[in-house]
Design brief:
five-stranded parallel β-sheet; HTH_Fis; sequence-specific DNA binding; ATP-binding; Rossmann fold; 427 residues; Helicase, Ruva Protein, domain 3; alpha/beta; CheY-like_superfamily; Sigma_54_int; six-stranded mixed β-sheet
């Protein structure tokens, strides 16, 4: 994959270039907008990492040019706090994310891996939200109980529901917690690279193998190997994986050297694995190896009590990361979050709040900022009108008729509130 860095600070550009090359990316660089445009025209770029302020042109106009020319290339904005409004504008234009300077290696690589759906990330310990819904508490309790053992655990549940969080929880409470936690997306590794990705390869083993490289089993040795989307693993790789799990040893591609491995396997999938076995898409013997214990992670829609606490956690996390000050969520936004079905689960909740944190103009994040302003009305228009009227009346009463303060709490402008009041017969 080719990454384009657009940055006029030569020292910073060189440092990021080394990080990305070490991570296996091919890197191209430009110091200004004309240079970046030229590179984008001549190369198939997978991601652009661009500064806002450049000696000629700027990162915003570069992004506008890319959008105008139909270049659907993920764009990450880099800028310092003084230029934060420019970063907000870039996100509104379509930039995928924003990185404040100084840029840190781990944060950058994790963000890029996520956007590019790269197969492997070595995780460091993260903060966890103590969820209160009964379904989520049962899952977390089972994860903690199984942690001290070395049982292979398969985590089932819909996409975006937080299956990796459960995997990390198991690792965190295990005796392996001081060793690596390596997350591998099994669905994103090309078939011809599966063996080398998992077991490593020696220099010259195949075209492109210019140095010796470690595989995931060696990287995770002593720790936990998390196989995400394991249901999408090619059948040929299932055979190789089964052998390693049985023998506890492997050979790097192109080598006769036998290496021992000591990893705990945790897997996750949103597939119906028993159906996959019956249809011959997944080996039955491997399934039972991986699923010595199954844990089900519920969807966010099944855990309504968790929505607002999780939203608050993500608000603080993203606000801190982007150095943004806000005070919480407007009442309208809270109601919309509770009514919404969350098809993308916790991942969608985090993404919507990240965007809201960046684009919100008021101290309280509103339903419009979250992109949920029509949610309640779509569910039940009559109830929506009654609830909205009651909500506005209650807030006006609470604020002693202060329309400006009420508008702020609703997450809308003063003008928009007047229009709503007129429509509802309150004015």
């Amino acid at each position: 994959m080719k990454i384009l860095i657009v940055e006029d600070n030569i020292i910073l550009c060189g440092m990021i270039e080394k990080w990305l090359q070490k991570a296996g990316y091919e890197v191209l660089t430009a110091i200004d907008e004309p240079g970046a445009r030229s590179i984008l025209k001549k190369n198939e770029i997978s991601l652009v990492l661009g500064d806002v302020r450049l000696p000629e042109g700027d990162g915003i106009s570069l992004l506008e040019w890319m959008v105008k020319n139909g270049m659907e290339v993920p764009y990450i904005v880099m800028t310092d706090y003084a230029c934060f409004p420019d970063a907000v504008r870039a996100v509104k234009l379509g930039a995928k994310d924003y990185l404040p300077k100084p840029v840190y290696q781990e944060q950058l690589l994790e963000l890029m891996h996520s956007l590019l759906k790269q197969p492997v990330i070595v995780r460091k310990e993260r903060s966890f939200v103590e969820r209160t819904s009964e379904a989520a508490r049962k899952t977390a309790s089972l994860a903690r109980r199984v942690s001290p053992s070395d049982l292979s655990v398969m985590i089932l549940g819909p996409s975006g529901s937080g299956k990796e969080v459960i995997a990390q929880m198991i690792h965190r409470y295990s005796d392996r917690r001081n060793k690596p936690f390596v997350a591998v997306n099994c669905g994103s590794i090309p078939n011809d690279l599966q063996a080398s990705e998992f077991f490593g390869a020696v220099k010259g083993a195949f075209t492109g193998a210019v140095t010796n490289r470690k595989g995931h089993f060696e990287t995770a040795n002593g720790g936990t190997l998390f196989l995400d989307e394991v249901g999408n693993m090619p059948y040929s790789m299932q055979v190789l994986l089964l052998r390693v799990l049985q023998e506890k040893e492997f050979n790097p591609v192109g080598s006769d050297v036998v290496k021992r491995t000591d990893v705990r396997i945790i897997s996750a999938t949103n597939e119906d694995m028993k159906k996959a076995v019956c249809e011959g898409r997944f080996r039955e013997d491997l399934y039972y190896r991986l699923a010595e214990l199954e844990i089900v992670q519920p969807s966010l829609a099944e855990c309504k009590e968790d929505i607002l606490p999780l939203a608050e956690f993500f608000r603080k996390e993203h606000s801190g990361r982007f150095h943004v000050t806000n005070e919480g969520f407007a009442e309208e936004a809270k109601e919309c979050m509770l009514y919404y079905g969350w098809p993308g689960n916790v991942r969608e909740l985090s993404a919507r709040i990240k965007r809201a944190v960046l684009i919100a103009d008021e101290a309280l994040l509103g339903a419009v900022d979250l992109g949920l302003d029509n949610v309640v009305c779509h569910n039940n228009p009559e109830i929506c009108i009654i609830q909205e009227k009651d909500r506005i009346c209650n807030l006006l009463d609470k604020n002693h008729g202060n329309v400006s303060r009420t508008a702020i709490e609703l997450g809308c402008s003063r003008t928009a509130l007047y229009k709503k009041m007129k429509k509802l017969g309150l004015k």
